[in-house]
Structure formats: C-alpha cells, structure tokens
Amino acid sequence: MKQRTLLVCILIVFALPLLPGSEVTSITWETTAQEYKGRYTEKITFQLPPNGTPKPVYGFGEYAWNSSIGSAAVAMDLLTYKDGGTVTILIVEGPEYYKSGETYEGWNTTFVFLDAKGNIIKPDEASIMYIDIPEEPFEPVSTPSPKSFTVSNNTGTTLTYLGIFSSDMRAVGVHKKNLLANERLPNGQSVQIYFAENPDLEAVILYRYGQVLQVDATAERQREFRYEWRPDTNNLQIILLPEHERKQKSLTSLAVINEGEYALVELYLLTPAMEAKRDYSKEILQGQVIRSGETCVIDLMKWPYLRSFLEKQTQDLLSVEAYDEDGYPLFQFWLPEYENLEITLSDWDYL
Length: 351
Hints:
This is LCCL domain-containing protein. This protein has about 350 residues and is mainly beta. The protein folds into three domains: about 5-130, Ferric Hydroxamate Uptake Protein, Chain A, domain 1 (Beta Complex); about 150-245, Immunoglobulin-like; about 255-350, Immunoglobulin-like, CATH 2.60.40. About 10% of the residues lie in helices and about 30% in strands. Strands 2-3-6-7-5-4 form a six-stranded mixed β-sheet, covered by helices on one side. It is elongated and about 110 Å long.
C-alpha cells in the first residue's frame, strides 16, 4: 500500500550569539530583506524589539526576500515575539521558484540565518517526525460494460423493420440498417441488439451521455412507429407501444417560408437521385415570388415526383436550392418532418 509522509518539525530553542565584529541594525517586525535584494553574500545583524506580532513569511530555513525577518527568526525558533533579540542573516541567490512571475535584478533573492561561527542554521533533521497516513484503498470498477440492449415489441402487430440512430449517424448515412435483418419480431417478443455487431450504436449509447436516439419501426400493412429514446445504462431496454404509431397524414401541400431579407425568385427541391444527376429541370416557383417574411404553399399534386418521394417517408434528405432577386444562391439539406411539412430559408442559408 502506498504511504503518504507528513513532515512535522520540532524546533529546538537555542540562543544565537553575535558574529564577531558585527554591526547591529535595529528593525521592526515588519522589516523584510527588500533593501538587500541582489546583494548576495552580504551578512547583516539585526535587533528586534520585544512584544512583536506575527508577519508573513515565505519559505522555511531559506526565506524569500519579502518575508518578515523577525517572524522568520521566530519560525526557526531563534527568537520569541515576547522578548525579541538579535539575529544575523546571509543574503543568497535563491532557486528559480522564488521568481513569482517577475524578472529584474535580484528577483530571486533569499536569506538564511547564521550562527556565531558564520555557519548557516538549518532545521534540525533529528527533530523531524514521519507520520504514515494510509491512502484509501483503490477499488477498480468491476462492473463490466453492457454487451447488448433489448427492444420489446408491444405494438400489437409484427415488426418487419427496426432502425435506431442518432442525428450524427443519419448525417453520415449509417442510419438505414435494419436491425432485424431478415427476421420478424412478433408482438410480445423481444430482440437483443449486440454492440459487437453495431459499434456505432455502442459508441452513442454507452459513451455519449444524454444522446437522444430515434427509433423507427415498420409493421405489417406499412404501419409505422417512431419513438425517441434517451438511453439509461442502468436499464438498456426499448419498449415499443401502440401509442408510438405514426398517424399517416395526407401529403397534399408543402410550405416554404422566406425568413431572409431578400425575395426568392427560383426554388429547386432535389431528391438524392436528382442531386446526383444535377437535374434542375423542375423549378418549383414557376414565376411566383416569395417576398421577405412570406410563405408559399406548394401544391404537391402538381409535383408527382416530390409527392412520391415524401409518401415513402424515408430518412433521405432533400437538397433545397433557391435564388434571390439579385441572383445569389441559398442552399440547405432538408430532412422532412412529416407531421409538419415546412421548409424555412433564411440569410444563414446563403452560400
């Protein structure tokens, strides 16, 4: 077991005679070695008056120049605040950690105390006690990471498709995988989804706290279910219920909202196939203008390709391209929200 060592210094009181021939300078308990910065090897003897009060010191044995000389002497047990007394110091060049962020002549000045023979006084090593303080024992987490999660079908029908993905997975095109493969999931049964076979889901579920995933399922007769799942690593289970079924709405219109500063005069809604061919043969506005702040309602009955695409309710993105009255282009990818078919274009969409 690792041990931490606490140093406790027991200081021994002894009298400090003057160095022969030393001149004595009277100082107060506030006096520091500031006046002697950079005057390395100089020795000075000081007289401290009685009835002193503690002042700041920095160091032990060797003190930074801005330490109280008197309080440093008391810390070394060379004086007492009650009686005061005489001490001799030696100005030395200290280690770099006394720099304190500044650089100038004498910036790392320190001082030590001398005895009557001119030797540096150091703390008595025999007075140091070592006390072992045991650390709390380290206990590694022994709980293994989950290997899978469970999806339970309580929808009242048999599922033929199951997809689970995050917004990031959808953005890079790994969201279409059918987790049921070629199997079916009857009502009242569950399936285990293993992370080893689905590393993208493992990363999102186990290591991205708070991530919301979209759960899509398709049942017989093209019934569709959707559920937003925030994983809980203490209970990795999804339960699909009848209330998660998506009610089919009549796809008759699509709203385009212009929140930009300028009027829109051209609009193209390209399916992935059209985008791949750069097919701009279908211009939606047909001479209409969507002014700033206005909404244009597009009749999907006039655009069979667009209605057909939307009726499939896939997770594919539409490319939305528009041009304003000055010919400047706007662009965005649009993921249809089938409960509310709206496209909003703003100044943020300018290329």
